[in-house]
Write a structure and sequence with these properties.
Helix 10 crosses helix 17. Strands 5-2-1-6-9-10 form a 6-stranded parallel sheet. Strands 4-3-12 form a 3-stranded mixed sheet, sandwiched between helices. Strands 11-13-14 form a 3-stranded mixed sheet. The longest helix is centred in the middle third of the chain and has 24 residues, at about 285-310. The chain has helices spanning about 35-40, 45-50, 65-70, 105-110, 140-150, 160-175, 190-205, 210-215, 235-245, 285-310, 315-320, 320-335, 340-355, 365-370, 370-380, 380-390, 395-410, 420-425, 430-440, 450-460; strands at about 30-35, 55-60, 75-85, 85-90, 95-100, 120, 130, 135, 180-185, 220, 220-225, 250-255, 260-265, 280. By secondary structure, the chain is an alpha/beta fold.
């Protein structure tokens, strides 16, 4: 792929488009919510490398820091691809405009544009406020507040992701424009269906008549995404300056591997993401199950067991024979329940070990450990249910769940979770009483599975586990 010129703007020493025709902003046809590193290493990178000119207007999800860093750079940033034998540098130019989360007028304005075709999101699993089996978490205080705002005025400023998407679709409908496609890029099974559900539920909460409006205004794509993207450090910024001459306040470090599987309709069109390596398919389910179970489930195992053993990164944990044995045990238990050929699974697992063993990728376990109450139900519980349905005890899955209970009891990485207070309280006290309470947070039915609870309790009482 051709890489844009990275000549320094000598007037400021800062990465800008000034005087660089090859990096002029493309017309905005995509709106993105969640201006974080993963977005810039993944959907923005694919869009940058797709033929044609598709510009992105990117909004922060909560923090304004990324927008404050990127705005002086006119949306440009350096992507550092960290190979084992050295780094590769390129300037990504697909972000044509940068906005903070509170710039609601601009958000609505883009939805009123006939040029808009796609809305992408990278906001973390928890931000969709989705409860499996029930839909939108209507008890979340932000949901009620946003619903009240939209009842008063459909252009009122809202904060939650479902309400922001709903407000945009209502603005588009009032402008008399056709449907667009919403493309979530977070690690949720059937993420397109999840987003459709929470937006429809939010619409029904505001006014039941709005559900039909939402259905007309958008299609929803389901995706599988994969690219390790650690937090940016001051050292990364210094490396970019030293190697490229660019003073970049917001570089992104990533790995060479990337995957994007997309299934859905695009009534207003989309970039030719296939040209950049994306897979367009009618059924993403096999890819989704494989990734959520083997990669994301493996990540959760390493995050809780590895950090409890004093490790800081994925590479550190994979280098620990104890963690590696637990990882292989998890993979052996989970892989029979996946709907992919065995040779494809074997190739996938070999690639995972190679990627995770790269010592130059500092993927922090503490980062992966966040939001366990949202992640574990989709990464670990499907294997638990499948094993129990066959009358077997899921020992490897129980070890992951035991490690999470230990995490909630203060072992390893700090607890950062949307239900942290409730989860900590459930995990406190005698272990044999705590385990069923924690299981009930993940799935109330599991709280009554005494075999599973006893197995988790046994693992917690093994040497080195918290009392």
């Amino acid at each position: 792929m051709n890489q844009p010129d990275t000549t320094t703007d000598t007037s400021t020493g800062t990465l800008t488009r000034t005087g660089r025709p090859d990096l002029e902003p493309a017309p905005i046809r995509i709106v993105h919510l969640g201006l974080g590193n993963f977005f810039r290493a993944h959907p923005a990178w694919y869009t940058h490398h797709a033929p044609g000119r598709w510009g992105i207007a990117a909004f922060t999800g909560r923090r304004d820091g990324p927008a404050d860093a990127l705005r002086p750079q006119e949306g440009l940033y350096t992507l550092v691809t960290r190979h084992e034998d050295g780094d590769r540098f390129e300037v990504v130019a697909s972000v044509s405009a940068v906005h903070s989360a509170v710039d609601h007028d601009a958000w609505l304005g883009y939805f009123r544009s006939p040029d808009l075709a796609v809305v992408t999101t990278t906001v973390t699993e928890a931000a969709y406020l989705y409860t499996p089996g029930t839909g939108l978490d209507i008890d979340h205080p932000g949901v009620g507040e946003d619903a009240e705002v939209l009842r008063r005025t459909p252009t009122g400023t809202v904060a939650t992701v479902p309400a922001r998407l709903l407000a945009g679709l209502l603005a588009r409908e009032r402008a008399g424009l056709g449907p667009i496609t919403i493309v979530p890029c977070d690690n949720l099974p059937r993420n397109g269906a999840v987003v459709r559900a929470v937006v429809r539920d939010m619409a029904a909460l505001v006014d039941p008549d709005l559900v039909a409006v939402v259905d007309r205004a958008a299609a929803y794509a389901t995706t599988v995404v994969d690219r390790i993207t650690p937090h940016t450090t001051d050292e990364d910024r210094a490396t970019v300056l030293e190697r490229t001459g660019e003073r970049d306040a917001a570089p992104v470090v990533t790995e060479p591997f990337t995957q994007w599987v997309i299934g859905g309709e695009f009534p207003a069109g989309r970039p030719d993401w296939e040209a950049a390596g994306a897979v367009i398919t009618d059924d993403v389910t096999p890819y989704e199950q494989c990734k959520l179970t083997l990669l994301n489930g493996g990540h959760s195992l390493l995050a809780y067991t590895g950090s409890a053993r004093g490790h800081a990164t994925v590479a550190d944990a994979v280098a620990d024979p104890v963690c590696l044995d637990l990882l292989r045990e998890w993979w052996e238990e989970a892989r029979p329940h996946l709907d992919l050929p065995e040779d494809e699974i074997r190739t996938y697992l070999d690639a995972l070990l190679s990627r995770w063993s790269n010592p130059r990728m500092r993927h922090l376990l503490a980062q992966i450990a966040e939001d366990g109450s949202v992640k574990l139900p989709v990464r670990i519980l499907p294997t638990v249910r499948a094993e129990r349905a066959l009358g077997r005890t899921p020992h490897a899955a129980a070890r992951v769940l035991a490690a999470w209970v230990g995490h909630l009891r203060g072992r390893g990485a700090p607890v950062r979770d949307p239900r942290s207070r409730q989860a900590r309280e459930a995990a406190a006290g005698p272990i044999d009483e705590a385990v069923p309470r924690v299981l009930a947070l993940l799935d109330p039915d599991l709280a009554h599975d005494t075999t599973l609870a006893d197995t988790i309790t046994h693992h917690l009482r093994e040497p080195g586990a918290p009392s």
